[in-house]
Amino acid sequence: MHLSYLQTMLLGLLQGITELFPVSSLGHAVLVPAWVGGSLGKFVSDNNDSYLSITVAMHFASAIALFIVFRSRWVLLISSGLKGLGKKSMTPTHAHASRVFWLVLIATIPAGLLGIAFQKKLTNLFGDAKYTAIFLTINGIILIVAELLTGKGSTHLVANADEEIAKHIDIKRAIGIGFGQSAALFAGISRFGITMSAGLIRGLSHSVAADFAFLLSLPIIAAAAVVKLPHLAHLNGGLGPVLVGSLVSFCATYVSIKFLVKWFKTNTLYPFAIYCLLFGVFSIIKFA
Fold first, then answer.
1. What residue ranges do the domains of the chain occupy?
2. Burial class for 87, CB neighbours closer than 10 Å (0-12, 13-18, 19+)
């Protein structure tokens, strides 16, 4: 069995739209085919290892779009981070950027190590719509709890996101966020959502918490790509459909980033939480 061009285009569009929304792109990559059924649903349930490699390819396309949108920010973070190793005197802007760079790397380590350690077990679990529906429902609850704990006023705007992150997130908390991000190894738990929720609880505004979540998305997706993309060389049906789907994912991600950056300047996670709860509960009823 292999996926058609139309199917990978659908999956690429789905991936691009949901990757940076706090609704779990992996969860949708499992549940939507399960609801659609037919050859697409059968491919997902019967070829979970190959399908996971395909979704990682589309995630990687999303990561490229993410880097392009925030390229000037990443140049500042990387250059400041490396400059900080030499303990050279830096302006406050570069000092904050250096700290954020290392916080991002530190927060990436737990998910990377756990992903490698439990890769086989996670792959076996991937593709099961029942468990994915349960995790998506839990994701909705996490988003609601984060909003309730932060209370009102957390949508305020700030002038310097790096300064706010450096102020509210230390190394210990970055490691904690990293372990929280590890929950997204289960399809249905949103990496972006759980990272943003952790940032909100630590006192970041919605816009800055979203900013930190955007930054954390890139390294872990790139790491997953290094591990899984070589598996595509043995994919039945060739790489053509995967490349087309990845291109669609890139374009859709680029558009969704622009929307989300504006959304979290003045809005909350509640709409996404309600959506996850509804989709998750209905999916539990269907696939349990």
1. 5-287
2. exposed
